[in-house]
Give the backbone structure.
Amino acid sequence: MGNKIHPNSVRLGYIHDWESKWFSLRDMPALIGEDFKIRNLVKQTFKAAAVSWVGIERAGSYLRVNIHTARPGVVIGKKGADIEAIRKKVEDMTSRKTFINVMEIKDPELDARLVAEAIAMQLEKRIAHRRAMRRAMERTLQSGALGIKVMVGGRLNGAEIARREWQREGRVPLHTYCADVDYGTAEAFTMAGLIGVKVWIFKKQLFVKSPKDLLAQAKRQMGVQDVDGKSAAPAEAAAAPAGGTPNAHA
């Protein structure tokens, strides 16, 4: 499963949220295509702005576009000229009243898409792929990640035969749904051809009990005294009468 299913798709509605938030039965195919065009427009307009993902919300005739980027100043532009220009383009494309918000990503080293794009940019500058992977992994682990896995595929170092190579540091539990695993891809356009980059980042594990909670749970299961000194006997033993039921005819 870890190699066949998108790590974000299996966690949607559980620990991850949807990038598009709207509901429509009749116009769903057209709106999905519209979202695709909006994201492509934002990505092509702000190639150097380190845009990770674009959230789209619809409510009636209104449209809200949330641009998550590590460089909000590049997206906004001088006196907001760039963001105003793209707002007009989106309104002309969709014929809807559009609002654009710029969200700053404070830790770009923990964003899988930005890490993949950084590796792809180094590959385009003819930096050795192992060195680029090692640099990205070190920075991500120093930022507080619990694990990272990087895979590159294509004509690495200009080889005639394409191959895949990957490296991993720490834990990347793809089968654990409560593990917050971020996934991102990027493409490097080199002289030898296209090289793909995939990045998995294990940030943290949610719904984890503390050692004190685990100890209290173990004691309750064993039927011994709890941490607070109260009896943690099974419910059946607590419900049984101490001296038996008195005789009604006595």
